[in-house]
Amino acid sequence: GSLYQSLRGAYTNIGDFDKALSYAEQALIVSLEGATYTNISDAAFILAVSKKDRGHKLPNRSPLIRLWLSNTITFLSVWISVDRLMGYHQQEVDKCCLLAFVENKMAHIFEDEEAFKRSDQWLHTAQESCNSYRITAKQLIELEIARATRIHDFDLAVTLTFDHLRSLQADPLTTPFDLAQATIAASMTTR
Fold first, then answer.
1. What percent of the chain has pLDDT over 90?
2. How far is CA 21 from the centre of its chain?
3. How many CB atoms lie within 10 A of CB 113?
4. What is the pLDDT of residues 61-103, one digit of tens each?
5. pLDDT at 189
6. What is the spatial distance between Cα 89 and Cα 128, in angstroms, rounded to a whole number?
7. Cα distance between residue 167 and residue 21, in whole Å
């Protein structure tokens, strides 16, 4: 599975999302043939990301992108349930965050208020799991900021952005790249 995941990453980096998706599918198939559950679930997450990435090539507002996003949403929903059942809470949270992102994309493309509500529900589920299992997820703060901005709670968006920046500054393991990204996000949020 690792070879296929590496090939998936290489093709993603050069923008060939069709080949990346194919290799992600192969990685999951190989994982299902005897890997540990965590490796299987990790491969499923990578496949979901590849599905999302491949969807970017489809025309906005087309029935095809709606079908593609719906397929990704269903795939993630199933795997979240399995991760919860298997006790793999880190992947449960990561998949909830990705699902919230995909629902949010669906909502923006099709001006679908129900998709915004589902996105918010998945964000809430991820937050609850993070609190219950003491898990951190980088994507969670980004989703919280995006949600606050979407609902025009700009004070909350600024507070979340600067709290995140301060926590990264205090963490000796923060990479300069992550700190730079958070700094740029903070400067953009206050504009």
1. 70
2. 16
3. 9
4. 999 999 999 999 999 999 999 999 999 999 999 999 999 999 9
5. 78
6. 11
7. 35
CA 87 – CA 134 distance, rounded (Å): 13
Residue pair 50/7 in contact (Cβ under 8 Å)? The answer is: no
Q: How far apart are CA 53 and CA 170, in angstroms?
A: 33
Distance of CA 131 to the CA centre of its chain: 18
* CA distance linking residue 24 with residue 48, whole number of Å: 9
What letter represents residue 33's amino acid? E
CA 136, CA 127: separation in Å to the nearest integer?
Answer: 9
Alpha-carbon span 7 to 5, nearest angstrom: 5
pTM above 0.85, yes or no: yes
Tell me how far apart the alpha carbons of residues 45 and 42 are, in angstroms, rounded to a whole number.
5
Helix or strand run (H / E) with residue 182:
helix 176-189
Residue written as token pair 């799991």: 129
> Greater confidence, 184 or 76?
76
Closest CA to 84 of 32, 22, 37, 48: 37
pLDDT score recorded for residue 191: 59
Name the DSSP class of 15.
Answer: T
Q: Which two tokens stand for residue 100?
A: 């919230």
